[in-house]
Amino acid sequence: MQLWLIPLLPLAGFLINGIFGRKLPKSVINAVAVGSVVLSFLWVLKTLSGLGALDAAYTEHYFTWIQSGSFHVGCDFSVDRLTAVMLLVVTGVGSLIHLYSIGYMAHEGGYYRFFAYMNLFMFFMLTLVLAANYLVLFVGWEGVGLCSYLLIGFYFDKKFATDAGNKAFIVNRIGDFGFALAMFYIVKTFGSLDFATVFSHASGASQGVLTAIGLLLLLGACGKSAQLPLYVWLPDAMAGPTPVSALIHAATMVTAGVYMTARSWQIYTHAPAAMEAIAIIGILTAFFAATIGLAQNDIKKVFAYSTVSQLGYMFVGVGCGAFSAGIYHLVTHAFFKALLFLGSGSVIHALAGEQDMRHMGGMWKKIPWTFWTMMAAAIAISGIPPFSGFYSKDAILVAAHQHEPWMYWLGTITAGMTAFYVFRAMFMTFLGDYRGHEHPHESPGIMLAPLVILAALSVLGGILFKVPDFLAPLFPAMEEARDFSLVIISSSAGVIGIALAYVMYVLKPGMADSVASSFKGLYTLIYNKYFVDEIYDAAVVQPVINGSRTVLWKGIDVGVVDGMVNGAGSQARAIGSVLRLLQSGNIRSYATWTLFGAVVLIAAMGVVGGLR
Amino acid sequence: MNPLLLVLALPLAGFLIALLIPRSSPQGSRIWALVLSLATFVVSLALPVLFQRGIAGEQFLLDVPWIRSPEIRFHIAIDGLSLWLVVLSTFLTPLCVLISWRAVQNRAKEFYAFLLLLEFGLVGVFMAQDLFLFYVFWEVSLVPMYFLVGIWGHERRIYAAVKFFLYTMAGSVLMLTAIIYIYNRAGTFSYPELLDMLVGGKLMFSGKEQLLLFLAFFVAFAIKVPIFPLHTWLPDAHVEAPTAGSVMLASVMLKMGAYGILHFCLPLFPTASRACAPWIVTLAIIGIIYGALVAMVQPNMKKLVAYSSVSHLGFVVLGIFSFTQLGFDGAVYQMLNHGISTGALFVLVGILYERRHSLEIADYGGVATAAPWLSTAFLITTLASIGLPLLNNFVGEFLVLQGAALANYKWAIYAAIGVILSACYMLWLYQRVFFGEVTEEIRSHLPDLHPREWAVIVPLVVMMVWMGVYPQSFLPKVGQTTAHILEQTQVNVPFRVQVPSQVGQIQTPHAEAANAR
């Protein structure tokens, strides 16, 4: 079925624009960049229709990538129903965002560079979801991280942007450390990294081993999907252009952790402790990030913390064993969160770069298309039926109640907060009077068309795509326990959140400030994001750098080792000058010293035993 | 004609003829060095083409008497281990000629002559199968490098050159002592013969003998690698060396140490090697983390890259002393990878230096605006160096860490920290040099790559991608030899050996399933 064409089309786009883009006219760059992704989307459609019901995974082997002794890893792609869902989301939403970018980036420098990176991202993301073994998945995993780094730091003359890029890459590396160690353990246990081999033998491995593997994979997922305690890079990642935030930092890349854990469900179902860890990290992240979202004034920051929080929901789904519910939310979230970002991009575009909501207001009359489409997304994320977000969030919360009731309640409170902060942002941006000094203008049609399509998907996506039914044959069945009252409670939390935001920001505009000032301590804490960045910096970054400089480099390297070497040199010289009659030349005396050192080393080795 | 002899003879002939070129024509020296080193490279390509995959041992063997008494033979051959190291040396030499084209104006004749002599020595080291011959080449390679650093280096070149020379000589003397001791015991310098005697039981070293001999060789090699804490000559040598010297030093010379360990130490002294493995692995892991941390805080680009080499070479040593097939293959591959990507880093730093005449990171910033292609090349090299998949280092690091994990999972945990740190120091370097607002000074001083520099960079980048995407072009030829070495290290087991439980084989799923049952 030529699965390789799916990622290779965007790769070709990357190579063309990356190498020749500087000299190409914009129309050609557009055609190559958008065309390659759209073609990839069409090829996905063709492939999937050709594969039919997909009851079993369809695999293609291309070549042996790495072989050493009996161990080998192939360059293999595989498609099953989970991959099919991911392929459609990635290429579908990806196409829309590429289209939107033509309008959004029209007046930016480095136009070809932007599209080259975006296409490269598509290549790696599609490799990630098509992979038939952990190592090829890891190729995509690291590759999307690279593109994220490049695009966050797209405005590379701004220090905050490149700082954010470094932070994203390095925090992700900490996660990848876990992922890599998980792979080493998998090879040690199963002798292979192929999904088929590993999963079919998972039941034979001991629970302790699987728990270790599961937790290490979870560390990787926490990095990529911005979960506690590694979420810190994602809010900063908003330094990149807004389409990047929509594609990479909302709809696709950050969901890779959810995809990877769901993909590894056979490992997790045999490692209940690891699964519990996923659920707990997910629910805590969802709640924690939502509280920060309450007090942010930068429109993109609000949605960034919202993304962290929504990813937490997906983790809850996976951790509670409702794998398909987690993926369901991944899909609907891709629609409405991409829309929220693209919409806020349209606002920012209209206001010539303004991102602070305190300088917005009254925009709905000026940019009605943006307003109404974003409204669809806002209602969807608040979980109001029958919008798409309702279905997926409901599925997760019901599963959470079945698993641990407290997770359901915390999730419901979070849902209320979500509705509040999203509508707070909507009201601050669109209602009231305009508080800035620009002359807002509606975005061009090429930006609005993707907004309209995504709005339709945000409204109808939950009904149109019954993801859990489609994925049912893949994952272990959950016992169905529909409790209608739970659904009503969680949806009304959304309604209450919206109403509260309406009261505080539309009916009585001064109320928000007075609430903030009456809870001054708490507000300061939340406004400053609990000072987590500052704590990490003081507890980890500075000690490592200062310690390396003063103790390791100046102390051990220059002081102790070189001190001894230079000392030995001058000692040798002194002795040599005394013994010049017997022995000439310093080199030999130097060698004597080294021999002496070697003898001491051997003696020491005899006394102690080394790292065994 | 034996292609090995040709690869060895061409640089020597080139060196001798280079001495005859009149000093008044530096351009003649340059062109001669380029033509000759390219010719050597082309001839050396015959080696991988004619190399037979199924054979683990010596190929292209040439064995003629050299000195009658004591009997020293001119015995050269290559196996899967040295094959690519020879090609790496011949590949990098013409690039070094090109990169020095404008940078070296002073005494160009001697410079290129020494460069060719260096190539001769390095290639010889990887071919010699007679212990004495090996020692000769080992020393031959030392001399031109000493002069390259000492004559064409920067301000503190004399200190650096002497330090380099003394450090290496100290090790060499130990090695020579051991070689002579072995000769006294066995009556031969021939390495294959020694191995046969060991396997056949005609030559037995007692535990103590083996340990002392092992350490004598090992210290010599460890200084070259360099293994912590014997590394302090490296940053000085690198900072002071001219670009070509840094490239040859990092890319090829450091590999002499790792090659020596794998080729001589392990098969000759298997039990001692295994007994010392936990100690050496400890040093390797310290080197990986320590090198990375110290690299992070360097204000000088070349020093940063030098310390990063300490970190990268730690992976090589870790792979070797994991005593697994994956570790061996990974270590060999990592030697080649490091040769390509760190060589490229030194080339690029040299290009920056030629324009701005500074190695201090603080003197840069905003280069990406002024020289986009140079920045792109540096970025790709940076990514290769931090082990991004589909670029060369990833494959080596993965195999090494996987091998270490199979031997002792804890080793992999500690060593993998180095992978996080490599991203820290390299990306931070990249940010400070290439990103940020461009100043007028940078803009006017930093033109983008010109054709001669393109000709150096492109082959290196192509190799990074090729070795990362399709390692099967290289690994299978290595695997046969490493498997053989692994086998050799399993003889003579009684002396204080603790064999890691999964050495050499991976537990199969079936075995695992059987265990569970």
Key structural traits:
heterodimer; A: 612 residues; mainly alpha; two-stranded antiparallel sheet; 25 helices; 2 strands; 74% helix; globular; disordered C terminus; B: 517 residues; two-stranded antiparallel ribbon
Describe this structure as you would to a colleague.
The complex is a heterodimer of chains A (612) and B (517). Chain A has 612 residues and is mainly alpha-helical. In chain A, 74% of the residues lie in helices and 3% in strands. In chain A, strands 1-2 form a two-stranded antiparallel sheet. Chain A starts with a helix and ends in a 5-residue tail after the last helix. By secondary structure, chain B is mainly alpha-helical. Chain B is 74% helix and 3% strand. In chain B, strands 1-2 form a two-stranded antiparallel sheet. The termini of chain B are far apart. The C terminus of chain B is likely disordered. Chains A and B meet through strand 1, helix 5, helix 6, helix 24 and helix 25 of A and helix 7, helix 9, helix 12, helix 14 and helix 17 of B.
Strand order of the largest sheet of chain B: 1-2
Give the number of helices of chain A. 25
Compressed to H and E, one letter per element, the order of chain B equals HHHEEHHHHHHHHHHHHHHHHHHH
Main sheet makeup of chain B: 2 strands, antiparallel
Largest interface: A-B, 76 and 84 residues
